[in-house]
Amino acid sequence: MTETRVQVFKTARRLLTGYGASAQLAAEAEALMMKRPLIVTDKGVMGSGVIEPILESFQHAFTDSTTLYSDISAEPETHVVEDCRHRFMASKCDGIIAIGGGSAMDTAKAVAVYIGDDRKLEALFGEDQVRTRKTPLICLPTTAGTGSEVTNIAILSDVNAQLKKGIVSNQLLPDVAIVAPELTVSCPPAVTAASGVDALVHAVESYLSNFSTELTRPLSLRAMTMINKSLLQAYENPKDMNAREQMATASLMAGLAFGNAGVGAVHALAYPLGGRFHLSHGVSNAVMFTEVMRWNYANCRALFLDIAYALGAPNTLVKEDAGDFVVERLAQLCEQVNIPKTLREFDIPREAIPELAESAHGVTRLLRNNPRELSVDDIAAIYTAVY
Ligand SMILES: NC(=O)c1ccc[n+]([C@@H]2O[C@H](COP(=O)([O-])OP(=O)(O)OC[C@H]3O[C@@H](n4cnc5c(N)ncnc54)[C@H](O)[C@@H]3O)[C@@H](O)[C@H]2O)c1
Ligand SMILES: [Fe+2]
To answer: Which residues form the Fe-containing alcohol dehydrogenase-like C-terminal domain (predicted)?
Structure first.
């Protein structure tokens, strides 16, 4: 009998892209029979001016019946999900619309699967612990970005455990994702930089993943090329619509790639930095990026050559030089967008390294995707190199 090799490509059920796509939101919400939507966003996005035109377009569809929830901090904490669910119930909402970066989208995704579940939120953490989602969900990213609009994971900070924890379930995949570059134009440069490098890490790690597929690999490579060309432009000229559109699309493509192939050791080593020392997701990934790539290169030289070409290497480059080319280009990009290079710059004590290494080694969900295995000592050596 032939071995079965069926793969399911996970994404939002419906995907709208391109400049002006946010104007379609009211129609999409109506098609999902939303009459009293809850808009989940945060204060930074509220102050950026992207919400007002959307609310205006809502006036015809949902007169007086839209509820706003914006009490979300970056790297959202678990109690916010409880609070947001309470608002949903109190306002008798019948659908959720996330407008924001990964923090707002992950909160909205967690709330959407928590509605109508009488268990404690903790019961939902881990893989496939979620029951059926009962409320419709639309996600509009305002950063480029996390790709959260098409992934089956929501990441929350558990302050007591000083850990970032994930809810992983296909029930988190939104009904509709609207990737509208106009929503990212107001991103301040530091957010453009951190979220843009996160998208690049998604592209590279998904390409190197042990679980990459024929469908994910082209998405990863193309996203790398687009980010390599447009990140600095978007950082230096926030109103450059072409750069914003390229970044928004690349972030989506990287999200589709890693949502199916997974990410690896960069994310695993970044997690404890977020949980314990509150570095933002994008910045913690950026700091670990080049050293983890230096480690990975030994096991996948041919793949590194592909990455080098995607990042603009001349076609005369050979496999033996691909590792150096990739590491140097990634380091240069992070430097150009002013992301600190060392753990020391974040006041992380050197003595914390053994504990960070133990914690990262426990992120087996991601380490199993990585092309080269890491022991606790290997991980500690990488943190030390970045110190
Ligand atoms: N679920 C996933 O697949 C996934 C993937 C990667 C990261 N994440 C999570 O996403 C979070 C990080 O998300 P992020 O990088 O998008 O940042 P974010 O959502 O935390 O936003 C960062 C800051 O930028 C502001 N901001 C966002 N969009 C803006 C805009 N258009 N104009 C002005 N200000 C704006 C926000 O108000 C906030 O202050 C982390 O919690 C991380 O764990 C999730
Ligand atoms: Fe990420």
So the answer is: 192-387
Residue 319 and residue 235 share a domain: yes
How many structural domains comprise the chain?
A: 2
323-375: per-residue pLDDT in tens?
999 999 999 999 999 999 999 999 999 999 999 999 999 999 999 999 999 99
The answer to the question of residue 331 being in a domain is yes
Distance of alpha carbon 276 from alpha carbon 269, whole angstroms = 12
* Pocket of ligand 1, beta carbon within 6 A: 42, 44-45, 48, 50, 74-75, 100-104, 106, 142-143, 145-148, 151, 153-155, 183-184, 186-187, 191, 194-195, 198, 281-282
190-227 pLDDT, tens digit per residue, is 999 999 999 999 999 999 999 999 999 999 999 999 99
Structure tokens at 12: 């939002």
Question: Are 204 and 172 within one domain?
Answer: no
196 vs 147, 277, 289, CA distance in Å? 11, 21, 13
SS3 content of the chain, % helix, strand, coil (to 5): 55, 10, 35
223 plus 173 within the same structural domain: no
Residue 187 sits at φ, ψ, to 5 deg, of -60, 125
CATH number of the CATH domain containing 93: 3.40.50.1970
Nearest alpha-carbon partner for 345 in 297, 273, 294: 273
